[in-house]
Every structure is written in structure tokens, then in C-alpha cells.
Design goal:
The protein is about 35% helix and about 15% strand. It is an alpha/beta fold.
């Protein structure tokens, strides 16, 4: 057990959330200098521009920390500099749920990875992302692209059959925190939900779990595929050309995980030829999506600019998670959401 923990706030936060942090764990010595961090906003990837003197002050604070609330500037390069300069650093909490990739990009050596605990904000975004997944499945089943196109033409289109939840199977690929919540919500609406996961897990609402090696077989049976995967070497382009070749004709694809899990050129081909009837994409392989990407103009694609996870509650929930982990660290208990140092998720 420790009596105190010096925490340097390394990314933009609101004064209200910092006040909440101090209330939740009074043993923290919280250093918060908002003028060095810039204004808090929904776009946490924006880098605040500092003068040379401000940058020197910022780095001096980072080098005095035992814990960091956020990766400095969300940058692997900045994290690597701080780790090298600060032998007293014990813990770094990343703001995004996929913050393991920020840690990976720092290229830290084995000693640093063993010395410092790294945690993520996984779980905070499960509800809004699961809702977007449900929205995407429903949009595909209820023919949103066709309805919008007809409306733009001012055309009262012929009446057509729409998909019913009771008749449809949805494959949720990745049964972590987001996937489990999405599966539960879809099952509650009457969909038959199957999972694709690398091991058996307890996932309410999921009728059967298939190993990743059988993804193509599952794709041939599913009316919709919901991807909730982290971005790792193991999940790179998991929705592959081979899986898309086997996909059920007209299926919907929803991605609320990471864009790198999709073979994007192969998905575009499948959208053009109709093998994929509709895609709702909160993430893309490269972000922001290039202005010349065909995805922008395909009528059966909905692009969300990596915003489906954001809600007004997000900053508070991340702060509460950080505070709970700080209490655990001070009390000598295990922390939640530790980064896997092999796959970095």
C-alpha cells in the first residue's frame, strides 16, 4: 500500500472531471495545468500546440509523475520520451479503449513494459457502440439506403419486403465488452445471435460461439455481421477477401471496432457487386477516410467519423474508471483493463 500517488493529467480534461477525480480518491496528488493541455473536446486526438517554454514545462511535469492520466498528446513518441526520462513512473492510463496501440507505437523495451502498468478505458464505450451496432443492423434490414435514395428522387417507391429480427441471424465478431453488450441488445430484439471468438466465453444472448477459423462458414449463414474487434496483428483484415467471398448475399456489415480489421478494397468490391447489401462503418482502415475513397460515394454505405462511442457521459465515466484503478493501485489490488503486452489491446 502507498499513502499518496502523484498523478499528472497528460491530456485535456475539464476542471469538473478533475474535481471529481480528487473527490473519488483523496490520496491522489493531482497535477492539472489546463493551459498546457488545451480545451477538452470530443475530438481527443487533437494535439495542443505549445510554445517551446510551455513544452519544457509540460515535459518537466510528466517527468515528475508516478502516474499519467492519458498518454501525452496521445503520442507513442511522447510516451517513449517520458518513460525514458522518468524512472519513477508506475502507471499510465490511456484514454481510448484501444489505447494498447498507443503503448505499442511507443516501442518500449521489456524492462519498461515490466516496470509500468498500462490500462485502457475499455468498457466505457460499450453502450453507445452497441447501440450503433443495433442501428446498423436495423438500417440494413429496413432498407435505409433504398428509402433514402427514393426520397431524394421524390419517388413513392413500390412496397417491398423488409427483414424481420425473428428471421435473421447476426454474427457478432469479438465478444469482449462491446461485443457482449451488442449481442445482448440484438438478442433482446429477437435476432438469433452467434459469436465468433477465439475462445468460449459467457455471452448472454449468444446461441453459439464459433472459433475465428470458422469465420467464413459463419459469414455464409449470417444476415448481418457486427465487428467489435480490437486492432491487433491477429485481427488485421480479419474480414478478409476469403470471408467476403463466402458471405451471404446481401448481408449487412457493421464495424464498431477498428478499421484495420477489414480488407477495405475487398469490402468495396463486395458492396459494389451486392454481396454486401449495406455497411455501417464507424471506423475505416485509415483515419480520417481519404476524400477520394469510393466508400464516400457508395449508396449502400453509411460513414460515421469514429464518433459512435462518444456520449456526454464519456469523460465522467473515464474519470471514474481512472479513480477506481488509482484506489486499487494505492491499496495493492489488481487494476482493471490492463493492456495485454503481447497483442497490445
Amino acid at each position: 500500500m502507498s499513502d499518496t500517488l502523484r498523478v499528472v493529467v497528460a491530456t485535456a480534461q475539464t476542471p469538473e472531471n478533475i474535481a471529481l477525480l480528487r473527490v473519488r480518491e483523496p490520496r491522489l496528488d493531482v497535477v492539472f495545468e489546463p493551459e498546457l493541455l488545451g480545451p477538452a473536446s470530443d475530438n481527443w486526438m487533437l494535439k495542443h500546440q505549445r510554445t517551446a517554454d510551455e513544452q519544457a514545462r509540460f515535459e518537466a511535469l510528466l517527468d515528475s509523475a508516478e502516474a499519467l492520466f492519458g498518454v501525452p498528446d496521445h503520442s507513442g513518441t511522447s510516451l517513449a520520451r517520458t518513460v525514458a526520462a522518468n524512472p519513477e513512473l508506475r502507471w499510465v492510463h490511456t484514454i481510448p479503449a484501444g489505447g494498447g496501440q498507443q503503448v505499442k507505437s511507443a516501442g518500449l523495451d521489456a524492462d519498461a513494459l515490466a516496470r509500468i502498468l498500462f490500462t485502457t478505458s475499455a468498457g466505457v464505450h460499450a453502450e453507445p457502440l452497441a447501440e450503433f451496432a443495433v442501428f446498423g443492423v436495423l438500417a440494413g434490414a429496413k432498407l435505409l439506403p433504398k428509402l433514402r435514395a427514393a426520397q431524394e428522387r421524390h419517388e413513392w417507391m413500390p412496397r417491398v419486403s423488409m427483414g424481420l429480427a425473428a428471421d435473421m441471424t447476426v454474427a457478432v465478431v469479438g465478444l469482449g465488452g462491446i461485443g457482449k453488450v451488442a449481442a445482448s441488445k440484438l438478442a433482446a430484439l429477437g435476432y438469433t445471435v452467434v459469436g465468433v471468438h477465439r475462445r468460449d466465453v459467457d455471452a448472454p444472448g449468444v446461441s453459439r460461439i464459433y472459433p475465428a477459423e470458422q469465420f467464413a462458414e459463419v459469414a455464409a449463414l449470417a444476415d448481418a455481421i457486427v465487428l467489435t474487434l480490437p486492432g491487433t496483428a491477429q485481427t488485421e483484415r480479419m474480414l478478409s477477401r476469403e470471408v467476403l467471398a463466402a458471405i451471404k448475399q446481401g448481408a449487412t456489415v457493421v464495424n464498431v471496432g477498428r478499421g484495420t480489421t477489414v480488407d477495405e478494397p475487398a469490402l468495396i468490391e463486395a458492396l459494389v457487386d451486392g454481396r454486401v447489401g449495406f455497411a455501417a462503418l464507424d471506423v475505416t482502415y485509415s483515419e480520417p477516410l481519404a476524400s477520394d475513397s469510393p466508400l464516400w460515394d457508395l449508396p449502400n454505405v453509411l460513414i460515421s467519423p469514429h464518433t459512435a462511442a462518444i456520449s456526454e457521459h464519456e469523460p465522467r465515466l473515464i474519470t471514474e474508471l481512472f479513480a477506481a484503478n488509482a484506489t486499487a493501485l494505492l491499496d495493492g489490488r489488481p487494476l482493471k483493463n490492463l493492456v495485454n503486452m503481447v497483442e497490445f489491446y
